[in-house]
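Project standup — Tuesday

K.O.: blocked on the structure for the chain from last sprint. Re-posting the sequence here as requested.
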Amino acid sequence: MTLFLLVFWPALIVAAAVYVWLHARILHRAGRSRLWSLAMLLPGVNIVLIWVFAYADWPALRTSKATPEIFE
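H.V.: unblocked you, prediction finished:
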C-alpha cells in the first residue's frame, strides 16, 4: 500500500501538471488567458470548457496576418 501511494500521487501530480501546461499553451495561442487552464482540473467543467473554446471566436485568428482564407 505504501509503494502504491509513493508511486500514484507523484505520477498524478505530474500528469495534472502536464495537462494544465498543454492547455495553457493552446489557450495562449488562441489569444485567451492561460489561467483558464486551471479550470480544466475540475471534473465536468473541463468538458464544457473544451466545447466553449472550440466554438468561440479566437482573437488570435482575427489579428493574425497569416490567417488562411478558410477561416475568414
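K.O.: great, moving the ticket to review. The chain has three helices and no strands. The mean pLDDT is 82.
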